[in-house]
Each structure stands twice: as C-alpha cells, then as structure tokens.
Amino acid sequence: MCEVAMEEHEREISDLDPQEGPAVAPNGGLVVVVNPSRVHAPFSVVLATLLYCAEFVTAAVLCGMYHKTDDVIWMGFTITFMLLPAVLIQLALTFIHRDLGRDRPLVLFLHLLLLGPVIRCFEALVVYFKAGKKEEPYVTISRKISLKKGQGPMELEVGQSERNLATHRNAFKRTAVIQAFLGSTPQLTLQLYATIQEKYILPTRLALMIITMISITYGALVCSVLAIQIRYDDYKVRLRPLAYLFMIVWRGLEIATRVTVLVLFSTALTHWVILVGMANLLLFFFLPWAEFWARKGSLPENMEKNFSKLGNIVVLSMFTLLYACINIFCWSAVQLDLSHGELIERKQRWNRLAIYYCGRFVENFVLITLWYFFKSDFYEYVCAPLLCVQLLICYSLAVLFMLLFYQFFHPCRRLFKYNVHDCLHCVCFRRGRREQRGRRGEPSYSTNATMVLTHDEPLELLDPQNSQIPDLASQLGDRETAIVTDMMEAA
C-alpha cells in the first residue's frame, strides 16, 4: 500500500506544466526538465471536503426532523448511511498519512470527532499558500512521457510543497470514492424510496438527494480518472474540459438511471430488491477472489510493514467491498488483481466492459418490466410505459456518451490497439460477410486455410487496389489471415 501511495504521488505531480526549456537526452529523445515554480491549488481537496460536510450536516438535520415525526426506520437508516462512510474516511485518512506513529494528538482528536477531512483540508491550504515563499530543497525527479507530437520524455523536479499536496490530493480521492459509494448511493436510494412511500417531498430531503447525487457523480468521475492514471502511469495524462463534460454526462445518466430503477422496483417488490442487491454485492465481491484463487496467486506482502497476514486480508476485503459497491451502481473502470502489489490490473479488458453494460442493461430492463406489472396504485396518474422507455433511453444515452468518450476524448486514445470504431467496424464487416455468403451459397473454407474460387466470387476481391482486405488482415485471426494471403497470391 505504501508503494501504491508513492506512485500516486508521481501521478499527481506529473500534472505540472513545463517551465524551462528542453534538453536533449543521451539517447536522442527529448527530455524536458521542469522547475515547479507554480504549485497548483488543491481544488479537489476543497471540493471533497465541502461535499463531505454538506452531506453530513444535511443528513443530521434530516435525522432531527425524522425524530420529531417519530419516523424511526427512516431515521435509523439515515444515521447509518451518514456515520458509516464518515468513520471509514477517518480511518483512511489516518492510514494514508500514518498519524498513528506520530505525535499529533490534536489531529487524532479531530478524527475522533469525525472532523478529519476539515483539518486535512486546512493543512493542504496552508501548504499551498506557503509554497514558493522560500526556496525548497530538491526532493525527487518524476519521469513522464508526453503524448504531444514533437515531445519526448519529461523529467519533473518535485519540491516538498508539491509532494505534500500530492499526498493530500490522493488521500481525498480515496475519501471521495468511499463517501460516494458507501454513503451517498445508499443514502440517495433510501431518501428517494422514502419520498415515494410518503408521497410528498421535504425540502431538506430534496437538498440531501441533490448533494448525494453530486457526490456520487464526482466519485465516479474520480474512479475513471484514477483508472486512466494507473493504466498509463508512464505517460503525462491531461484531460480536456470537453472530456470531463462527456464523463460527467455519462456517469450522471448511468447512476441516475440505476438508482431510479432500483427504487421503482423496491416500491413494487420490496423484499425481492434485497435479493437483487445481495446477489450483485456477492457477485462482484467474490469475483476478484475467484480469479485470484484460479490463478493460484499469493497475497502481496508490501501493503504495510506493520500488518500481519490477517491484517492484509482485512484490508483487501475492505478494498474488495468498495469495488463491489461501486459496480452495483456503475462501472468501476478498473479490474482488481489481488496478487499484484497495486491491486489493480493495468490491462484494459474491453470484453469485461461490454459484458458489464450488456448485463446491466438486461437487468434494468427486467427490473423495470417487473415494476410495470406489479406497480401499486400510486402510479395510476403516471404514464408507466413512457417512464420505462425513458429509463432505458437514458441508460442507452449513458453508454453512447461512454463510447464517444473512448473514441474521441480519451487522453490516451492514440495508444489503443483497437478503438470503438475498429471494434464496431470489424463486427459489422464480419456480419456482412456471413450474410453475403449465406445468400450466395458460397462454399465454406477448410481448416487448412485453402480456398476454392467460384464464378460467383466478385472480381473486386481479387484486385488489391479496390479491396479493403489487406487493411483488415491485422484484425482477423490466424486462420483468416492465411486465407487472405492465399487470395493475394492468387491475384
């Protein structure tokens, strides 16, 4: 875990802008040595702290209102979803900053009062405003590869202030994810369900739902950005504003649709929604462990020096629980590898992405169909078929914005071996070829990569200039590649 945190520091530090001229490396590449005279403001730290405080205070006020009206069930669940992420955030901040072995009684006392994010945000702001006022000692150099044309590797000189801010940023990224998927998502689901059951909207409850929706969207956005930074750790990653916009729309539609479907289904079949939620939780919780046991891997030993093997298992279980909670509501953007030191698999698995969204679309369709047939009389003034269609369209739009992001706005799309357009083109081409062969009754090819040409074969396929087969040869399998080679030799 320590090595993961150190690498996260370098990922954050790599966002600095070049301030000095380039220098030529010995191997002929371009190396830019950067002197970080300008330190970036910790906006992410401030935003995560504001969301934490706003959600905590609003939930506390709503609990007071539930207490006055004797709504014991709503009050109990609201307190649970308010305190659980708060306690886990205090533990995460204490663990990342290693405060247990340091003499900082005031900070530990504030953590006991659930005010850890506030004091950490204050510390980050103090570091930012003090940066640049005096010369800082050299700390380390982070080497990154620029994706811009005409630029090579970059060496970034890192000062003590920027390194401390990187520690705070990485800590608050983790707290934002914990807050979003262990607190905000169940809180939003609960309050929306309570609103439908009580058939009226409280202003405080509405404010809490809006805050939790913003927190969830921000947490999902952090997951996507962290996944990109982890997979392309050697590159200097910089997202454009339009990329953030597409990611926000993608994540917002995906989460809003998922929460609405679960709430509507719970109003019709209350007890069955528990089975659906537990099935999703257990599936995504045990999936990384099943892959770990199938690979016959060993647990990483470098998570923490003071941890025993049992402590490592507990930390991994909590990490897997967070991963499962994320996947219940949206795509986590990463796959876990419990045998690796970073716990994250760097390889992009497009088949996992396709299976997840296809399966989630089918599940949403089944749940919303069951709600349509078993809905209560409360929805008699609601056009239920139109609502079902709108939910499915919203989820389809979320998938569409995701595909557009990967195709046009992903910062490392130049490094993709295959992109969305290539996959769709290959699938459509193969389907068109199969339909064309079925209509013409063409003979099938044998397993020895031999081919029989008939008179019905189009002459364009024998012309290398008019054919697109050489361009697609790299995308086909070994057997199909051999077939194309024979065709070219025949031409």
TrEMBL record:
<feature type="transmembrane region" description="Helical">
    <location>
        <begin position="310"/>
        <end position="334"/>
    </location>
</feature>
<feature type="transmembrane region" description="Helical">
    <location>
        <begin position="108"/>
        <end position="129"/>
    </location>
</feature>
<feature type="transmembrane region" description="Helical">
    <location>
        <begin position="386"/>
        <end position="409"/>
    </location>
</feature>
<feature type="transmembrane region" description="Helical">
    <location>
        <begin position="271"/>
        <end position="290"/>
    </location>
</feature>
<feature type="transmembrane region" description="Helical">
    <location>
        <begin position="206"/>
        <end position="230"/>
    </location>
</feature>
<comment type="similarity">
    <text>Belongs to the XK family.</text>
</comment>
<keyword id="KW-0812">Transmembrane</keyword>
<protein>
    <recommendedName>
        <fullName>XK-related protein</fullName>
    </recommendedName>
</protein>
<feature type="transmembrane region" description="Helical">
    <location>
        <begin position="242"/>
        <end position="265"/>
    </location>
</feature>
<dbReference type="Pfam" id="PF09815">
    <property type="entry name" value="XK-related"/>
</dbReference>
<feature type="transmembrane region" description="Helical">
    <location>
        <begin position="45"/>
        <end position="67"/>
    </location>
</feature>
<feature type="transmembrane region" description="Helical">
    <location>
        <begin position="73"/>
        <end position="96"/>
    </location>
</feature>
<dbReference type="InterPro" id="IPR051773">
    <property type="entry name" value="XK-related_adapter"/>
</dbReference>
<feature type="transmembrane region" description="Helical">
    <location>
        <begin position="354"/>
        <end position="374"/>
    </location>
</feature>
<dbReference type="GO" id="GO:0005886">
    <property type="term" value="C:plasma membrane"/>
</dbReference>
<dbReference type="InterPro" id="IPR018629">
    <property type="entry name" value="XK-rel"/>
</dbReference>
<keyword id="KW-1133">Transmembrane helix</keyword>
<keyword id="KW-0472">Membrane</keyword>
